[in-house]
Design brief:
The structure is a single chain. With 410 residues, this protein is an alpha/beta fold. The protein folds into three domains: 58 residues, no CATH class; 193 residues, Aminopeptidase (3-Layer(aba) Sandwich), CATH 3.40.630.40; 80 residues, Immunoglobulin-like. The chain is built from nine helices and 17 strands. A six-stranded mixed sheet has the order 6-3-7-10-8-9, with helices on both faces. A four-stranded antiparallel sheet has the order 14-13-16-17, with no helix packed on it. It has a three-stranded antiparallel sheet with strand order 11-12-15, with no helix packed on it. The protein starts with 5 loop residues before the first strand and ends with a strand.
Length: 410
């Protein structure tokens, strides 16, 4: 339907045209619509009149300006109003700016659950066997939990050498890390000892230049998480083979491909206090989450956030090979003093210049049997009371964190 259109021409020294296109719901031009037309016409007339008055005022001001003498430059400057400062363009805060995940820098972390494979006798496939449990199953649970934890951080991609129970050689694991462009490989393990008395968490890394620096940095950060969980830290360590290369195959193979690697030994399956922190699925998941949190903390990653740039990491590159401690504690001695309550005060001394004194134990039967390992306190000398009859054949062993010991007796 074509709507009616009314054109009104108004002339008051200046022309104004108004086009009105209105109708009521019936399509007819009714009284209310005509009244609306009149109101709009009045508004147009008023605007035209105002425009005419502004033009007259401008002409009068121009005539007065020509009649007056020119102002001095200083007077002009004084009469000028200061120019309003311009609002700066709005720049989004870099921290608030949304980062395109596809463009953000990425760390490629390769998780390597230790051992794995269908064999029933192959130690390399099974790992440690205690408590009717195979190490290979526990490391896979830890790795999956670590993967889940790290997936919550931006700027990281996680790869796993295995996510099922399958066999892989150390060379194959390193080659996989290279194939995905891995920046770091973390090999996850659980420990055991011949005498079934050691406990604590430790990390092994390469002994060479930036491979050591990166592995040691990540390793210390993970150990901080594990000690918060209740483990004792045996520290970050190196181990060399007879030819002077890194002893552990996964570290050696990764280094040959330019990839830093570390081995995390969470704790001892054959020791009760450590086993209590890994004997359930929930406990294993807690280990994996702590591993992930430690790694993310070292790289400066934030949970739920993608960074446009990765934080700079301050790493000290060693100037020479970081050799392991190969000698036991030195200057080991003890003395006993009877106290007023009938007990004896034992003073035990040991010096470790290459690493640190870690544990001690004692025997009352000349070395036939020993107590559980006790943690060494800080310093070279510790003291503790013992209840003795005087007929015991005392013997002491002092260990460093490389499990090397010195034994002394009566």
């Amino acid at each position: 339907m074509v709507l009616p259109m009314l054109i009104i021409s108004i002339s008051m020294g200046a022309a104004a045209w108004m086009v009105i296109d209105r109708n009521d719901r019936s399509g007819e031009i009714t009284g209310p619509v005509i009244l609306a037309y009149a109101k709009e016409a009045e508004a147009v007339c008023q605007e035209a009149f105002s425009e005419q008055e502004r033009e007259k005022a401008a002409a009068l001001a121009e005539a007065q300006k020509k009649a007056e003498p020119e102002d001095t430059e200083s007077e002009e400057m004084e009469s000028q109003e200061p120019e309003a400062p311009k609002e700066p363009d709005t720049i989004p805060n870099a921290e608030d700016e949304e980062v395109d995940p596809d463009m953000a820098p990425k760390l490629r972390i390769v998780l390597d659950p230790g051992h794995g494979g269908p064999g029933l006798k192959d130690e390399q496939e099974l790992g440690a066997i205690y408590r009717d449990t195979y190490e290979k199953y526990l490391t896979l649970e830890i790795a999956k939990a670590m993967q889940e934890e790290l997936s919550q951080y931006g700027n990281i991609e996680i790869f796993m050498t295995r996510d099922t129970d399958r066999a892989l050689t150390l060379k194959e694991r390193a080659a996989y890390a290279e194939s995905v462009g891995g920046d770091l490989l973390v090999s996850l393990h659980l420990n055991a000892s011949l005498e079934h008395n050691f406990y604590g968490s430790e990390v092994f890394v390469s002994a060479f230049d930036h491979f050591y620096a990166r592995g040691a940095g990540v390793g210390e950060s993970i150990l901080n998480q594990l000690t918060d969980y209740g483990f004792v830290s045996k520290g970050v360590k190196t181990r060399l083979g007879s030819k002077g290369a890194d002893y552990y195959g996964i570290i050696r193979e990764c280094k040959s491909l330019g990839i830093p690697a570390l081995i995390v030994e969470h704790g001892y399956m054959d020791e009760d206090s450590d086993w209590a922190r890994m004997n359930t699925t929930d406990a294993l998941k807690a280990l994996g989450r702590r591993d992930g949190a430690g790694l993310a903390a070292y790289y400066g990653l934030e949970k739920g956030k993608i960074l446009s740039e990765l934080p700079t990491i301050d790493e000290t590159i060693p100037s020479s090979v970081v050799r392991p401690d190969t000698t036991p504690p030195e200057e080991v001695w003890y003395r006993k003093e009877q106290q007023g309550d009938g007990r004896w005060l034992i003073t035990l001394h040991g010096v470790e210049r290459e690493s640190r004194v870690m544990y001690y134990d004692y025997s009352l039967d000349g070395g036939e049997t020993y107590s559980s390992l006790k943690l060494w306190d800080k310093g070279d000398t510790i003291q503790f009371p013992m209840s003795l009859t005087g007929e015991e054949q005392l013997a002491f062993r002092v260990y460093n964190n490389y499990e090397l010991r010195t034994e002394i007796g009566n």
